[in-house]
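Record 1 of the preview.
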Amino acid sequence: MRPADTDELMQIIADAVASGGRLELRGGGSKSDIGAPHEAAVVDMTGFSGVIDYDPAELVLTAGAGTPLAEIEVLVAGQGQMLAFEPFDHGPIFGRASGSATLGGVIAAGVSGSRRVSKGAARDHLLGFKAVSGRGETFVGGAKVVKNVTGYDLPKLLTGSWGRLAALTEVTVKVLPRAQVTLTLVLEGLEPGAAQAAMSLAMGSQADVAAAAHAPGLTAFRLEGFGPSVTARHAALAALLDGVGEVRALPDIEAQAFWRSLRELDALNDGRPLWRVSVPASRSCQVIDVLDPLGALWLMDWAGGLVWLTFDGEPAAVRRAAEAVGGHAMLVRGPERLRAGTPALHPQALGVRALEARVRRAFDPSGVFETGRFIDAD
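->
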């Protein structure tokens, strides 16, 4: 089903409520293989596509939730601006071409790239939205202004809800000026502990590092801004890290290739289950120390706050390692048999799970959007 407007979407949801049906909301489908195999009627949200309002001077853009992310990025780049939370397309992670992700899809999944560590997450850039709840009712959250403190902060609640609360039809996001100059500095040959320490040192400095990541053998720091500022911060960061190793600047082509490879997880394309482990940045190495000897391959992003890894051992081993440092682990990719018995989202404490269920029932009392994709652990 591909509703062309809100009225059609409301009717589809109302019919599902009446019949006891289940609906899977889908944009470009780039993340459709995340979660347990399930059966539900698919609602194609790409009918809600197109830019509705864009005011570069006010740094605000409103578009249909089904608008391709690539289209939005080209539009704002033409005005010297960007989506600062650096959303990305999951397609390549699943062996598909990029280009299918939608703006609403990355908001619903809370997708934030390497710049999250300096500019905030997707939820920090969603100003407002329009949506249809599981009751078949329209509602709005937030507003088309950067500063808005009226009512409940529904944009933060909807971001990362994975379509379990409501169907987003329109979103308003904050955009920021694109940096005039981007420079990537690297250290080579650091072990995980030394790499994490170097990233922590850099992020706590006056160098204003936009992103920091580590792939085995290469630790990278991205600087962004005006030319003279980047030059000065380059010198300051190189001096700061002088005792760690030799700092060198990557040529632009190599830098772009590094960040693209990190975003698409090229180094983890080994066919094994893929995990996304979110941890306190200072404790990421403890997760690696546990799982690396067991055969895991890994990358660190967000200055160590995010560990991507492939691992074909017991899922419980990954989740124990994450919990031990106060983090959580999400199963992103895996065979159907594994996904059928392993919750994609990290199991929550009973009290938190009960509270979350109450929130979902408030938006979707009939469970129209509960497709079985996100199973709960016992």
